[in-house]
Amino acid sequence: MNMPDNPERTVVGRLAPSPTGGLHLGHARTFLIAWLAARSAGGRVILRIEDLDASRVRPGSTEGAMVDLRWLGLDWDSGPDVGGPSAPYLQSLRGGFYEQALGRLQAGEWVYPCACTRAEVARAASAPHAGEEGPAYPGTCSWRTVADARSIADRPFAWRFRATTEPIIWNDLTRGRIELDPDRGGGDFIVARNGVGAAYQLAVVVDDHAMGVTQVIRGLDLIPSTPRQIMLYRRLGWPEPAFGHVPLAVENDGRRLAKRSGSLKLETLRAAGVDPRALVGILARSCGWSSMIEPSSPGDWISRFTINTLSSDPWVVPDELGSIRET
What we know:
By secondary structure, the protein is of the alpha/beta class. It has two domains: 12-91 and 207-323, Rossmann fold (3-Layer(aba) Sandwich), CATH 3.40.50; 95-203, Glutamyl-tRNA Synthetase, domain 3 (Alpha-Beta Complex), CATH 3.90.800. It is built from eight helices and twelve strands. The chain has helices at 25-39, 61-72, 95-107, 118-124, 200-210, 225-236, 266-271, 276-286; strands at 12-15, 44-47, 111-114, 158-161, 168-172, 176-180, 189-193, 197-198, 215-219, 242-246, 249-250, 315-316. The strands form five sheets. Strands 3-4-7-8 form a four-stranded antiparallel sheet. Strands 1-2 form a two-stranded parallel sheet. The chain has a two-stranded antiparallel ribbon with strand order 5-6. Helix 3 (95-107) packs across helix 5 (200-210) and helix 5 packs across helix 6. The longest helix has 15 residues, at 25-39. It is globular and about 65 Å long.
């Protein structure tokens, strides 16, 4: 494991975009909150590019994300372009660290090889739950041990983590006390695929630990991932960061913003001459830090930042964004 960015456990936040398309206004709001949460505590910010899924990575998206974030006025202390003690800051280059962590899980028999296909899991699940990882895993291969991987090495298989049965509880920075049942959240989950590498849940835990991250602020849609990551932290014997989940941004009709929403991408707004200071003012107002739009830079809100004013409702992108132009 490489040396952590944060040996003294000072506040460290992170921005972790995926280079699968341009950043949109929802990303901008969440990243602004994450940045301010760290900076207002006198902490550091790390930029990490989560590009594990090579099939979804779009050329130029990594560079575009950094341009978008800097245009918004955000900066970072460690990252792909500036280096740092926990380099590399691209997940696609960190496979060796994930293998080390997987080896620790294997040594404790906390994972097992699973040759079930998605279709088999869906058919066997008595109460499927929709989610990023698909239906709840019914435990078909949970009898296997790590050594059994040799007997199925001739076909594709995944390494599943043995989820605990007791509820996972944490005090969310934005939502308060949250309690989730791991079984209701999908049960045993995939942490790696043989011959392919680590899955998201393992990679993000390994990276956040190695980089000394103490607080993770991200979208509300990632709440189901939090119990899984907490379980991994505990099995690996690592301190857990504080988690905070921010309501998503939606359009006027209630549809969630997506990277395919071209008109709401930061790249599109930047090319159209939108004033980033006015945009920051709109984002700050949406977070309850002001009752009016105050053209500003992110640093202007450090002394006024509070996470307690965030609404629990989705943020509806206001109409005035379409009329903001540089003068």
